[in-house]
Records
---
Amino acid sequence: MNDEETIRETLVGELEEIRLRAAELDALVTKFEGASQQLVGSEGELTALRDCSDDPLVVYDIYGRALYINSSFVETFGWSPAEVLGRRIDYVPQECWPQTKETLERLFSGESVGPFATKRLTKVGRVLDIHIGSAMFTDTRGNPAGHIVTLRDIHRWNQRQRAVQESEQRLELALNGPDLTFWSWDVAGDLLERSVNWSEMTGYTHEDAVSSDFSWNQLVHPQEKSIVEKALKDHLEGRSPQYEAEYRLMTKTGEWKWVRDRGKVVAWDAQGNPLRVTGIQSDITARKRLEERIQMPSHSLITALEREREKISSDLHGKVAQDLAALRIAFGMLFEDLTRSPLRRNAASCKFPRDCEELSSRCGTFLMHCVHRDLTSWGWSARSMSIAGFGLRRTG
């Protein structure tokens, strides 16, 4: 074989190798395009993850470049989307690289990798204790296309857990009192569950409550039943923001207790129909009794005043009638004296009309004096009264 043939064979071999490399590159491009299409098709799912996750979340492509970060990631680590998207995020401490590398290798080999504790750096270099969860996603052909990582800040998570525990303890203390109970109603199954202290409030046992013959509706006082049913219906049908009603509830001993119910729909089905309502019931019997005692004096006072008015009106009627009779007699006698007087026979000098006017004025003054005397003796102010016939009415 001469040199020319040797060169020709060498060139053919190199060309074949270039073709093989080109085929591999084409396969990689196809793989990358498939991953991109998968990511585009999963955009709605990623948006949902963004909206519901409180933990920092990152979506990486197969080459470790960030495709997406949520707002919790920005808040926790300090990088903005413009600073990290399309790039590798340099936030793995040097001592954590071996663990991270091993985890990625296991993940892309198809192994299931459970959550694990590690450390990550913030933008300003602060080290955070992190609990990482990771899941791989594939393209339309089933090939690995990237992975989704959640990074839970352990310190912040512990703070939240303590806050939740404290809230639960406060709620438990409140609900353990005999005057406040918790209830939950399964609307579809018509099953009503109550906290254990409901028995202390009403006297009914758990066995009573779960009996097929037991109905909450039968315990509501007839006068408030329609009010309670309307309030509950309005809330279930969306006409009110919450269910609230005050009504009397029959205890096991037959006693009526005033209670206040407050509740709200907390779960719906796909069609928007309510599935579960939860709320609290409080014993307000003491408050209702106090309100009744406050209202009773005003009613009694009004009744007493009415009776006093009728008594005074009756007494004054008799007094005024007596005084008028006396005045009628006196006026008749005076009138007779005036008509018989020789002075009245002279028509030119007759002052009879003027004398009658003076007499009437004196009679009126005398009558008012009698009324004032009687009212004062009864402890009433004459200025606050007026006479209408022989009855009285308040004027001030």
---
Amino acid sequence: GPDQFLQVIHVIIATGEAVILQHPLAVMIGKRLPPLVEHRFITVENWSGLEGMGNFDVVRRQMPDGKVYEGRTVRTFDPKTRLWRLYWMDSNGGPIDPPVIGSFENGVGLFFCKDYQVGRPVIIVFRWDKTNPNQPVWGQAFSDDNGKTWEWNSSNTSYRVK
């Protein structure tokens, strides 16, 4: 239900600084993954909303060129289908990404959508693992063969900076 996602979100992105290790976002299908890069976010903020049926976050970090990157997630929960929809947008411009749709089972959430990457149709999966509530893990993979194989191209382990 809605409490499952709210629990993981409150652990992952409580207001304050967060450190996330992830692969650079310029990864394309079929390419070897570059080394992990540490990103220190300036702020990560989260709000509940929609009468308990959703939540929102904003992440900001300073880029090496001094500009501030900002991303936002809107999450909505449908109590009839028991599915979450996660929408992402960022300061790089362009349209809001298609929502990834899914749910949690035994502390792991899987969320899928169809999209295009480098002009090719792909299935995208987000995986939220909150089995360790002190260090929840998020990952993203693309499949260009209708889900037969997956290329995990981005992941992060989140924790609060003390």
